[in-house]
Design brief:
Length: about 270
């Protein structure tokens, strides 16, 4: 990933867009637009319940390149954080975003959010990173198993995902994982564990950053030591931990996550 960030993106891919409107007005602050970036192998549709039920602000949730209904990369290794970030920044151009935006990213999406802030910091008002995969001590075992099982006939992948997400969600997620383009999961697996490029860039990121950490006793991707160390490397970094939250914090603990997000937005 470090080389990909240094070299920059090779092309821009048009993204499918999921849009969610305001459903309540409890939040004290309404940014002009909030962008939600999904995790590896799924799509922006996974944010629907989170956005409609809890976020008191207009939000958009694109399908990242090679995911959902968005276009594929021209080559199978063009799925780095900087590639994804360039697509989202181009989407902001097409939508005529009026000013800096809040970017909320989950897992891979959090790396994309960091890459966006590195590339064009003036266009980002703040970042929220939901269980970012920044811990070099935690393996990519789940991603590797999903990459293997999605090549098999239906059944084993659904069973494997059900151990994390339950039966109903596992069927939907399995379909999204199978739909993801070749190279999406493989590029991630081939990248250095813990995203060292993000650690190198952290001291230069002057936008406010909130890290919401899941529970490693469940399936969290960020341990306490790495979370604290990364937050300290950020000039304006804040870290919170939600006990019992799975890696998909927005699905397992949406109310707690949004309470932290609303407080963070109101205070920055």
């Amino acid at each position: 990933m470090t080389r990909a960030i240094e070299d920059g993106p090779r092309s821009v891919v048009a993204l499918h867009l999921n849009e969610f409107g305001v459903t309540h007005t409890s939040s004290p602050h309404h940014p002009p637009e909030t962008i939600l970036l999904h995790g590896l192998g799924v799509s922006g549709a996974v944010w629907a319940g989170f956005a409609r039920r809890f976020l008191a602000r207009p939000v958009i949730a694109p399908d990242l390149r090679g995911h959902g209904a968005s276009g594929k990369a021209p080559l199978p290794h063009h799925y780095t954080p900087s590639d994804y970030a360039a697509d989202v920044l181009a989407l902001m151009d097409r939508k005529g975003s009026p000013g800096p935006v809040t970017v909320i990213g989950h897992s891979l999406g959090s790396l994309v959010a960091l890459a966006m802030a590195m590339a064009e910091p003036d266009r980002i008002s703040r970042l929220v990173l939901l269980d970012p995969p920044l811990d070099p001590a935690i393996s990519n075992e789940v991603v590797g198993e999903v990459a293997r099982l999605r090549q098999e006939p239906p059944g084993p992948l659904e069973t494997y995902l059900a151990s994390f997400h339950g039966d109903a969600a596992s069927r939907s997620l399995a379909g999204l994982f199978r739909l993801a383009a070749p190279g999406t999961l493989e590029t991630y697996l081939a990248s250095p564990r813990g995203a060292p490029w993000a650690w190198d860039a952290a001291p230069e990121l002057h936008v406010p950053v909130l890290i919401i950490q899941a529970d490693v006793a469940v399936d969290g991707a960020l341990g306490d030591d790495a979370a604290n160390q990364f937050a300290r490397r950020l000039p304006r970094g804040t870290r919170v931990h939600i006990p019992g939250a799975s890696h998909a914090i927005h699905a397992s603990r949406p109310r707690e996550a949004v309470a932290h997000i609303d407080h963070f937005i109101a205070s920055t």
